[in-house]
Amino acid sequence: MTGADDIDGLAAEYVLGTLDAAERAAMSARRQREPQLDAAISFWERRLAPLNEAIPQVAAPLSTWQKVEARITRAPHSANGSAEIIDLKRRLSLWRTSAIAASAIAASFILAVGVRELTPQPKPKNLVAVLQKDAASPAFLVTVNIEDRLMTVQPVAAKREAGKSYELWIVHDSLGSPKSLGVIDDASAMQRPTLAAYKRDVIEGATLAVSLEPEGGSPTGAPTGPVVFAGKMIGTSN
Amino acid sequence: MELPSPMQTSQEISTLLASVARKDRAAFAAVYQATSAKLYGIVLRILKRRDIADEVLQEVYVKIWERAADFDPKMASPITWMATIARNRALDEVRRKKPDSIEDHPEILNVASGEDLAIDEILKGEDGKRLYDCLSHLEPDRAQMIVLAYCEGLSRDDLGARYGQPVNTIKTWLRRSLQQLRTCLSP
User: Fold this and answer.
1) I need a labelling partner for B35 at 20 to 30 A (CA). Which of A13, A216, B63, B68 fits?
2) Contact at CB, B150 and A116, closer than 8 angstroms
3) Mean pLDDT of chain B
């Protein structure tokens, strides 16, 4: 066996995954200083990558995002600044762009891996909104199953001020004023059916906003405090 | 809504990754939303255990956050780049520890059958068609071995147990099959 064959065989097995721990460690170190080996690994990574399409998607636990977020945050920001909304309009417009991108990506994944599952039993379509103060501070993740209108609210980094409550609102042109979806003070993820009364296209086109209210929620039925977090609904399939 | 072409998709996620490289957390959240089910599927396949897969997935996204600037859209599609990070991390983990023996966990062999893999899904892209074509030129056993190793993370030992062959034979089969694939896949 020539040297080149051996390099290619090793690179192929490295990408395939059949090398043992010591061999993997050696390859990972060698590729840093051996361009030929590195190129062979890249070849195999690219060529075998279509096999990933065959692997069914599995929804990651909701808590995983929180943990990722915590790990990349060295000094956690507190979310107590009601006056610190950084150009919400700008963020919303940026989010519209991201939302289009995210739904396009999600749709293509579903197209790529879900066709056979979709045919007999259509998958529930989900909507997601990241509610945030600014780019650096996502505070809540809201997931909506559009079929049964069940909404899951997952706090990411929101810290509540003593004596105050966070209240969630749905905002859509057709609704006139913001409509309350309830107080979201609990620290853990919660599921609730409060979207049951809303039409699908309203939910799909809605912005969700969180205002800071007196403890227990707005006394008037309309937001009385400042909007501290907001985010647009993003479709994850269509 | 018309479904976007894969080209647009790659472009969109590449744009998001460029923002992640500038430490844009909103873009990172969007990348996570769009890709975590795919990457979790990949690592769970290899690791078989949700607790370990959850931990590995966190590390994978921390790495994506830290290394987004290394992503080069000319070299790979964004999902291939991310899937490579995920696979490498999962494979390091599954090889690092002596894996549980099949006797302790009889379900491991069952979940590693590969029967629920949607192999025809790889036909979606040009690269996938070519790979499919080249795999179908191998003996069926050998093609299956490649798929099981890649998708299910089976080691040479695992493959030896499955095919009732000594590890050295498995290694020879793998190398020969990979060489055939290489010849078929080379431009």
Assistant:
1) A13
2) no
3) 86
